[in-house]
Amino acid sequence: MKVVLLAGGFGTRISEESHLKPKPMIEIGEKPILWHIMKLYSHYGFNEFVICAGYKQHVIKEFFADYFLHTSDITFDLQTNSMEVHDNFAEPWRVTVVDTGLNTMTGGRVKRIRKFVGDEPFFLTYGDGVSDVDIAKLLEYHKSHGKYCTMTATNIGQRFGVLEIEKNNEISGFREKSESDGSMINVGFMVCEPQMFEYIEGDSTVLEKAPLENLAKDGQLIAYKHDGFWQCMDTQREKQKLEEMWASGQAPWKVWEE
Protein backbone atom coordinates (compact mmCIF):
# COMPACT_ATOMS: atom_id res chain seq x y z
CA MET A 1 0.00 0.00 0.00
CA LYS A 2 1.13 3.52 -0.76
CA VAL A 3 1.21 6.35 1.75
CA VAL A 4 -0.05 9.70 0.44
CA LEU A 5 1.25 12.76 2.31
CA LEU A 6 -0.22 16.24 1.97
CA ALA A 7 2.74 18.62 1.84
CA GLY A 8 1.77 21.47 -0.47
CA GLY A 9 0.36 24.23 1.74
CA PHE A 10 1.87 27.62 2.55
CA GLY A 11 2.19 27.11 6.31
CA THR A 12 1.33 30.74 7.02
CA ARG A 13 0.87 30.19 10.77
CA ILE A 14 4.52 29.26 11.13
CA SER A 15 5.83 31.85 8.68
CA GLU A 16 9.01 32.34 10.71
CA GLU A 17 10.36 29.30 8.86
CA SER A 18 7.83 28.53 6.12
CA HIS A 19 8.89 31.59 4.09
CA LEU A 20 12.02 29.55 3.30
CA LYS A 21 10.60 26.03 2.95
CA PRO A 22 7.32 24.08 2.97
CA LYS A 23 6.00 23.47 6.49
CA PRO A 24 6.54 19.67 6.26
CA MET A 25 10.25 20.39 5.69
CA ILE A 26 10.65 22.33 8.94
CA GLU A 27 12.98 20.31 11.11
CA ILE A 28 12.67 18.50 14.41
CA GLY A 29 16.04 17.17 15.56
CA GLU A 30 17.66 18.16 12.25
CA LYS A 31 15.19 16.11 10.21
CA PRO A 32 12.02 17.42 8.49
CA ILE A 33 8.77 16.59 10.25
CA LEU A 34 7.85 14.86 6.97
CA TRP A 35 10.74 12.42 7.59
CA HIS A 36 9.42 11.65 11.09
CA ILE A 37 5.99 10.78 9.67
CA MET A 38 7.55 8.58 7.00
CA LYS A 39 9.64 6.78 9.61
CA LEU A 40 6.44 5.86 11.47
CA TYR A 41 4.90 4.26 8.38
CA SER A 42 8.19 2.58 7.47
CA HIS A 43 8.36 1.03 10.94
CA TYR A 44 5.17 -0.84 10.06
CA GLY A 45 6.52 -1.94 6.68
CA PHE A 46 4.99 0.71 4.41
CA ASN A 47 7.77 2.20 2.32
CA GLU A 48 6.08 3.58 -0.81
CA PHE A 49 5.24 7.25 -0.53
CA VAL A 50 3.45 9.75 -2.75
CA ILE A 51 4.04 13.32 -1.61
CA CYS A 52 1.53 15.97 -2.70
CA ALA A 53 3.85 18.95 -3.06
CA GLY A 54 3.07 22.53 -4.04
CA TYR A 55 4.58 25.53 -2.27
CA LYS A 56 8.39 25.44 -2.71
CA GLN A 57 8.10 21.86 -3.91
CA HIS A 58 11.72 21.92 -5.14
CA VAL A 59 12.89 21.84 -1.50
CA ILE A 60 11.23 18.45 -1.00
CA LYS A 61 12.66 17.07 -4.25
CA GLU A 62 16.17 18.26 -3.40
CA PHE A 63 16.00 16.70 0.07
CA PHE A 64 15.36 13.24 -1.35
CA ALA A 65 17.71 13.72 -4.30
CA ASP A 66 20.57 14.41 -1.84
CA TYR A 67 19.48 11.95 0.86
CA PHE A 68 22.12 9.33 0.08
CA LEU A 69 24.83 11.97 0.04
CA HIS A 70 23.78 13.38 3.40
CA THR A 71 23.68 9.98 5.14
CA SER A 72 27.02 8.65 3.88
CA ASP A 73 30.71 9.06 4.72
CA ILE A 74 32.40 10.19 1.53
CA THR A 75 35.87 11.02 0.25
CA PHE A 76 35.99 13.56 -2.57
CA ASP A 77 39.07 13.50 -4.83
CA LEU A 78 39.07 16.91 -6.47
CA GLN A 79 41.96 16.10 -8.81
CA THR A 80 40.11 13.23 -10.46
CA ASN A 81 36.63 14.61 -9.79
CA SER A 82 35.70 11.30 -8.16
CA MET A 83 33.85 10.26 -5.05
CA GLU A 84 34.37 7.24 -2.80
CA VAL A 85 31.51 6.19 -0.54
CA HIS A 86 32.49 4.56 2.74
CA ASP A 87 29.74 3.91 5.27
CA ASN A 88 26.26 4.75 4.12
CA PHE A 89 22.68 4.34 5.18
CA ALA A 90 19.59 4.73 3.05
CA GLU A 91 15.95 4.22 3.97
CA PRO A 92 14.10 1.44 2.08
CA TRP A 93 11.79 4.05 0.60
CA ARG A 94 10.39 4.66 -2.86
CA VAL A 95 9.29 8.30 -2.92
CA THR A 96 7.22 9.99 -5.63
CA VAL A 97 7.08 13.78 -5.27
CA VAL A 98 4.24 15.29 -7.31
CA ASP A 99 3.83 19.01 -7.95
CA THR A 100 0.10 19.27 -7.29
CA GLY A 101 -0.03 23.03 -7.86
CA LEU A 102 0.68 26.12 -5.84
CA ASN A 103 -2.90 27.07 -4.92
CA THR A 104 -4.62 23.68 -5.12
CA MET A 105 -6.77 22.76 -2.13
CA THR A 106 -6.24 19.59 -0.07
CA GLY A 107 -8.87 17.56 -1.91
CA GLY A 108 -7.58 18.71 -5.27
CA ARG A 109 -4.09 17.59 -4.35
CA VAL A 110 -5.37 14.11 -3.54
CA LYS A 111 -7.29 13.99 -6.83
CA ARG A 112 -4.14 14.88 -8.77
CA ILE A 113 -2.14 11.91 -7.51
CA ARG A 114 -4.76 9.30 -8.40
CA LYS A 115 -2.68 7.84 -11.24
CA PHE A 116 0.18 7.16 -8.82
CA VAL A 117 -2.10 5.24 -6.45
CA GLY A 118 -4.24 3.38 -8.96
CA ASP A 119 -7.30 1.38 -7.94
CA GLU A 120 -5.91 0.26 -4.61
CA PRO A 121 -6.47 1.28 -0.98
CA PHE A 122 -4.01 3.88 0.31
CA PHE A 123 -3.01 5.70 3.45
CA LEU A 124 -3.54 9.46 3.57
CA THR A 125 -2.31 11.95 6.14
CA TYR A 126 -1.08 15.47 6.69
CA GLY A 127 2.60 16.34 6.49
CA ASP A 128 2.70 18.45 9.64
CA GLY A 129 1.66 16.21 12.55
CA VAL A 130 3.38 13.36 14.39
CA SER A 131 1.76 10.53 16.33
CA ASP A 132 2.37 7.11 17.85
CA VAL A 133 -0.73 5.68 16.17
CA ASP A 134 -0.39 1.94 15.51
CA ILE A 135 -0.55 1.81 11.72
CA ALA A 136 -0.98 -1.97 11.62
CA LYS A 137 -4.00 -1.84 13.94
CA LEU A 138 -5.42 1.10 11.99
CA LEU A 139 -5.26 -0.88 8.75
CA GLU A 140 -6.70 -3.99 10.40
CA TYR A 141 -9.61 -1.95 11.73
CA HIS A 142 -10.22 -0.40 8.31
CA LYS A 143 -10.40 -3.82 6.69
CA SER A 144 -12.83 -5.04 9.35
CA HIS A 145 -15.69 -2.63 8.54
CA GLY A 146 -15.57 -2.44 4.73
CA LYS A 147 -16.28 1.31 4.43
CA TYR A 148 -14.55 3.72 2.06
CA CYS A 149 -12.56 5.70 4.60
CA THR A 150 -11.21 5.34 8.13
CA MET A 151 -10.09 8.51 9.90
CA THR A 152 -7.99 8.57 13.04
CA ALA A 153 -9.65 10.66 15.74
CA THR A 154 -8.37 11.80 19.11
CA ASN A 155 -9.19 14.27 21.87
CA ILE A 156 -6.54 16.91 22.54
CA GLY A 157 -8.56 19.83 23.91
CA GLN A 158 -10.64 21.87 21.59
CA ARG A 159 -8.80 24.08 19.17
CA PHE A 160 -10.22 22.47 16.05
CA GLY A 161 -13.66 21.57 14.69
CA VAL A 162 -15.02 18.33 16.10
CA LEU A 163 -16.56 15.09 14.84
CA GLU A 164 -19.98 13.64 15.55
CA ILE A 165 -19.24 9.94 16.19
CA GLU A 166 -22.02 7.38 16.66
CA LYS A 167 -21.85 4.28 18.89
CA ASN A 168 -20.65 2.11 16.00
CA ASN A 169 -17.81 4.62 15.33
CA GLU A 170 -19.52 5.86 12.18
CA ILE A 171 -18.87 9.55 11.65
CA SER A 172 -22.20 11.26 11.06
CA GLY A 173 -21.09 14.89 10.77
CA PHE A 174 -18.75 17.74 11.53
CA ARG A 175 -19.29 20.85 13.62
CA GLU A 176 -17.47 23.76 15.21
CA LYS A 177 -16.14 23.33 18.72
CA SER A 178 -17.78 24.80 21.82
CA GLU A 179 -16.02 26.09 24.92
CA SER A 180 -16.83 23.02 27.00
CA ASP A 181 -16.39 20.53 24.21
CA GLY A 182 -14.64 17.23 24.79
CA SER A 183 -15.31 15.69 21.40
CA MET A 184 -12.75 14.08 19.14
CA ILE A 185 -11.01 15.71 16.19
CA ASN A 186 -9.66 14.56 12.83
CA VAL A 187 -5.89 14.07 13.07
CA GLY A 188 -5.37 12.49 9.66
CA PHE A 189 -3.77 9.04 9.47
CA MET A 190 -6.57 7.88 7.21
CA VAL A 191 -7.03 4.70 5.21
CA CYS A 192 -8.94 5.22 1.98
CA GLU A 193 -10.47 3.01 -0.66
CA PRO A 194 -10.12 4.22 -4.28
CA GLN A 195 -13.85 5.11 -4.29
CA MET A 196 -12.87 8.16 -2.27
CA PHE A 197 -11.54 9.84 -5.41
CA GLU A 198 -15.10 10.03 -6.72
CA TYR A 199 -16.02 12.34 -3.85
CA ILE A 200 -13.47 14.95 -4.97
CA GLU A 201 -14.39 17.31 -7.81
CA GLY A 202 -11.20 19.21 -8.63
CA ASP A 203 -8.45 21.60 -7.58
CA SER A 204 -10.74 23.89 -5.58
CA THR A 205 -12.13 21.06 -3.43
CA VAL A 206 -11.19 21.16 0.24
CA LEU A 207 -10.85 17.59 1.48
CA GLU A 208 -12.24 18.42 4.90
CA LYS A 209 -15.43 19.95 3.45
CA ALA A 210 -17.60 18.27 0.79
CA PRO A 211 -15.62 15.00 0.33
CA LEU A 212 -15.47 14.01 3.99
CA GLU A 213 -18.88 15.47 4.77
CA ASN A 214 -20.47 13.49 1.92
CA LEU A 215 -18.65 10.33 2.94
CA ALA A 216 -20.14 10.83 6.39
CA LYS A 217 -23.64 11.37 4.97
CA ASP A 218 -23.31 8.17 2.95
CA GLY A 219 -22.22 6.20 6.02
CA GLN A 220 -18.80 5.58 4.50
CA LEU A 221 -16.59 7.37 7.05
CA ILE A 222 -15.51 5.51 10.20
CA ALA A 223 -13.46 6.78 13.14
CA TYR A 224 -10.45 4.94 14.50
CA LYS A 225 -10.15 6.21 18.06
CA HIS A 226 -6.57 6.89 19.10
CA ASP A 227 -5.87 7.43 22.80
CA GLY A 228 -2.14 7.97 22.41
CA PHE A 229 0.04 10.86 21.31
CA TRP A 230 -0.60 13.29 18.47
CA GLN A 231 0.74 16.78 17.91
CA CYS A 232 0.60 19.07 14.90
CA MET A 233 3.20 21.76 14.17
CA ASP A 234 1.21 24.84 13.25
CA THR A 235 3.18 27.37 15.27
CA GLN A 236 6.71 28.10 16.42
CA ARG A 237 5.64 27.23 19.95
CA GLU A 238 4.49 23.77 18.84
CA LYS A 239 7.73 23.25 16.94
CA GLN A 240 9.70 24.10 20.08
CA LYS A 241 7.59 21.66 22.10
CA LEU A 242 8.37 18.85 19.64
CA GLU A 243 12.06 19.81 19.55
CA GLU A 244 12.25 19.56 23.34
CA MET A 245 10.62 16.12 23.31
CA TRP A 246 13.05 14.90 20.66
CA ALA A 247 16.11 16.32 22.44
CA SER A 248 15.06 14.70 25.72
CA GLY A 249 14.98 11.27 24.11
CA GLN A 250 11.33 10.97 25.10
CA ALA A 251 9.59 11.68 21.79
CA PRO A 252 6.37 9.58 21.96
CA TRP A 253 6.14 9.27 18.16
CA LYS A 254 9.60 7.69 17.84
CA VAL A 255 8.49 4.05 17.77
CA TRP A 256 11.29 2.90 15.48
CA GLU A 257 14.76 1.70 16.41
CA GLU A 258 17.94 3.36 15.18
Summarize the structure.
The chain has 258 residues and is an alpha/beta fold. The chain has nine helices and 16 strands.
Structural write-up:
With 258 residues, this protein is of the alpha/beta class. It has a single domain (2-248), classed as Spore Coat Polysaccharide Biosynthesis Protein SpsA, Chain A (Alpha-Beta Complex). 28% of the residues lie in helices and 28% in strands. It has nine helices and 16 strands. The strands form five sheets. Strands 1, 4, 7, 8, 10, 13, 14 and 15 form an eight-stranded mixed beta sheet that branches. Strands 2-3 form a two-stranded antiparallel ribbon. Strands 5-6 form a two-stranded antiparallel sheet. A hairpin with a 4-residue loop joins strand 5 (72-77) and strand 6.
CATH topology: Spore Coat Polysaccharide Biosynthesis Protein SpsA, Chain A
Tally of DSSP helical segments: 9
| Helical content class | 25-40%
Q: For the CA atoms, what is the radius of gyration?
A: 19 Å
Unreliable residue stretches: none
Mean pLDDT: 91
Largest sheet: 8 strands, mixed
Strand content: 25-35%
What is the CATH C-level name?
Answer: Alpha Beta
Pfam families: NTP_transferase (PF00483)
Organism: Ruthenibacterium lactatiformans
GO biological process, one term: O antigen biosynthetic process
Protein name: Glucose-1-phosphate cytidylyltransferase
